Amino acid sequence: MADNDKTYAPSAEMAAGAHADRATYEAMYAASVADPDAFWGEHGKRLDWMTPYTKVKNTSFAPGNIDIKWFEDGSLNVAANCIDRHLATRGTQTAIIWEPDDPEAGAQHITYQQLHAHVSKFANVLKEMGVGKGDRVVIYLPMIPQAAYAMLACARIGAIHSVVFAGFSADALAARVNGSEAKVVITADEAPRGGRNTPLKVNADKAFEKVTVDSKMLVVKRTGGDIAMTAGRDVWLHEMEETVSADCPPEEMNAEDPLFILYTSGSTGQPKGVVHTTGGYLVYASMTHQYTFDYHDGDVFWCTADVGWVTGHSYIVYGPLANGATTLMFEGVPTYPDAGRFWQVCEEHKVNQFYTAPTAIRALMGKGNAFVEKYDLSALKVLGTVGEPINPEAWNWYNDVVGGGNVPIVDTWWQTETGGHLLTPLPGATPTKPGSATLPFFGVKPVVLEPETGKEITTTEAEGVLAIADSWPSQMRTIWGDHDRFEMTYFSQYKDMFFSGDGCRRDADGYYWITGRVDDVINVSGHRMGTAEVESALVAHTAVNEAAVVGYPHDIKGQGIYAYVSLMAGQDPSEELRKELSDWVRAEIGPIAKPDLIQFAPGLPKTRSGKIMRRILRKIAENDYGALGDTSTLAEPEVVDDLIANRMNKG
Ligand code: WTA
């Protein structure tokens, strides 16, 4: 049992200088769950409110009435909190360090004053294009400062942004533009990454062939590459900026007005638009940023995520900037020009808190220690991980080689839906164990349920599925345009609880260990992917009759994508077709969805009622077919013999 695992206690020095030591954490946690109104009423004051709230928590998880409101009678503006309120005290401090893909190009430092000027202009450009309070804007940009400006510009005028990861395909972009009925899509000519340029504007043009709503395009000049502009639809940001005023007063927003929509994968159907609102989200993002990373004034904070994911929203843009931090934005990839890039950037900018994903750690670990040891990492005070369970081997390498054995690691468990960290150590408070996300953040009530009955397991040691018993301020409020689906997805399986979709174990010390998704969501390189999405892309190909997709263990990615495909009559299962199908999925969704293994199968294992038996497909993909379990309900047992004989993962 993991209780015997080695624990790493915070050093006395760390505990003494931290926002929270053990005793503070315990006292604050107890207060936060005993009286959420009092606790969050107090901590909500970390923001500047235009109208102070008098109500704090008003939330219901009751069937038929899922209703979540925090600070509901308060008003504020997120951009004013992330920029304007810092101007008097830290106007000349760097807000954003931008590190471009090409290390030779040199970093940019953007001060809070400059950020204010950029965002105000950008906001006026959006207004000029007809965007107003409550309108949606899609952001499809590389990791450039304009991505942060665009998000904050929307927040400033009360528009709702929906950031679409630049690695997503034209089709995926079109679906999100249509889904949110966006008035404007912000993109760039090209996106440099790892020394190559992705033709972003070309993708956006392709997407617009399928865009059915009236939408304009605002284009950022990043590389100066040759692109086509459609008259009457497309405009350049830099040209528009010349025509607008530099003054844009922040719009007064109710705490419960939507701040953003972010599409994420679920176990069924197409991605859903997770909606986060203004007040509670920012309170929680800023508080977790401060406590989880033990951020102090003057520190340089680097989260390596992309702003296309929730991690980039909460911990590159909103949390750090609300705290007046210096946040680093990196355009490139960990292995370009070589596997030392992360550490070179850490040295160059004296990064104090570094936050990345286990998949990156594993990839870099495989390149050897020399890439790390070449650089001075002595400024590092906290290391963070997010996105998937971290295997102890990677944890130890992060700890020993990157942290030199004396930098605490925070393994943060959370989701797009949760807006911020729910389970995490605090660097000065929580002894860590490799692979455990440890204990709940303030205000979070995790429960472990029996998967079948939904009964809460109340013993300290427990194994089951993870749910959260009560609301926290940055909980998602709804699915864009589909509140019923919100209730169905998160509150119907287990009554009066928010269901996470993750399995977990609680050890004798009350520590939580996430065991991975228990639904049909897989986690590929820390990116969430619904198997249903990949399946629907595959069956959209004319050669494919049926497809079933499962995850299998992958050394670097955590999980790889394993697709079983049965072909239409008359189609030959050739290597060319295998490649074609791979490329097809890549084009339909994006490179992250490309199957690692495709197995052609004459048939898929089904129950007599025609339901695909995924349990069996998972076992075969895991090369663990000795343990297939009960196969007596199979309609055609011989299908399984063929699947085993021709399995793709023989390792
Ligand atoms: C997984 C990313 C183990 C989990 C912030 C969750 C993790 C999904 C961890 C959410 C962690 C995230 N340990 N698993 N520290 N962090 N996950 O929405 O399965 O992209 O449900 O949010 O990632 O992924 P999402």
Automatic annotation (TrEMBL):
Domain AMP-binding enzyme C-terminal positions: 533-611
Requisite cofactors: Mg(2+)
Binding site for CoA: R193, G194, G195, R196, T311, S525, R586
Domain AMP-dependent synthetase/ligase, chain residue ranges per copy: 85-470
Binding positions (Mg(2+)): V539, H541, V544
Coiled coil feature spans: none
Functional description taken from the UniProt entry: Catalyzes the conversion of acetate into acetyl-CoA (AcCoA), an essential intermediate at the junction of anabolic and catabolic pathways. AcsA undergoes a two-step reaction. In the first half reaction, AcsA combines acetate with ATP to form acetyl-adenylate (AcAMP) intermediate. In the second half reaction, it can then transfer the acetyl group from AcAMP to the sulfhydryl group of CoA, forming the product AcCoA.
Name of the molecule in the record: Acetyl-coenzyme A synthetase
